[in-house]
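Input.
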Amino acid sequence: MQAYEVQGAFGLENLKLAERADPTPGPRQVVVAVKAASINYRDLMMVQGTYNPKLKLPFVPLSDGMGEVVAVGSAVTRTKVGDRVVVAFFEDWIARPVPPDKRLHRVARGGPVDGMLTQRAVVSEEAVCPAPSNLTNAEVATLPCAALTAWSAIVTQGEVGPGQWVVVQGTGGVSLFALQFAKKLGARVIVTSSSEEKLARARALGADHGINYKTTPNWGKAVLEFTTVGADHVLEVGGAGTLAQSLIAVRPGGHVSIIGVLSGVKSDLNVVPILMNNIRLQGVHVGSRTELEAMNRAIEQQNIKPVVDRIFPFDDAPRAFRYVEEAKHFGKVCISME
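Output.
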């Protein structure tokens, strides 16, 4: 079979197609013929070496993928050959709470655990669950990281409810899933973007208001003025560079979900507003398999459709990464192995 590996050194120029032996499952493992995968910004950073520069090479990137079970180990009970499945981000985080005996990054797919940019993947049986029947293969491939992160922030940890105000930053995968989930729960959503075209598309998806952070750099104050009291929830995908604005935007007693690091990982932060306004800062590191299963059921029942910007063929995977690097996409960028 063939798989993409980052070989020798980090960098997209070192993402190479390699021949690998067909995998054989252990007693509690399954082999998945990968049909589709998707790219998160984390994946791009992983290949570039900026996410985990100590990662051992070579490795197979991409945390998100789905496919068909083609072989099972002798002790497997959770799935069978022929099942259409989605593969969880974490190899063995089954349910909350977070396991106290390990750090989750050690079992994260797409680094350090080999990822889904391969024709066949061998994974733990605990890492697979049924794919929503209402979605295409490419749409299913967007779920394990981006969708589940949004679900964790909005549903599991955020407990968003009707009438609440939710701010999502940008129009990447996590933000658009958060928009869709929040609207299904009856919340009102504000989207930030530097593109008026993307803001218009977000409104077409149900966003109640849009703020161009390029023309309105103090967008936190704009959120405060628009809502009169501040947002109940802010999805912080920018990181250190935008957190100060999120703290301005959120209401007293509100909730900021720390998700991404697009604008950096370190900053000088004044903690007084957090203290005085009783603001809750919540780290969100994707979610467990149990949450993935619950989300998949909701997506199927509510017929929620992921926003897929573009699908690249397997042979053209490096170009898909370049496309994500350009940051012109709206929603998810996928790779098809079919």
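The domain at 158-283 is CATH 3.40.50.720 (Rossmann fold).
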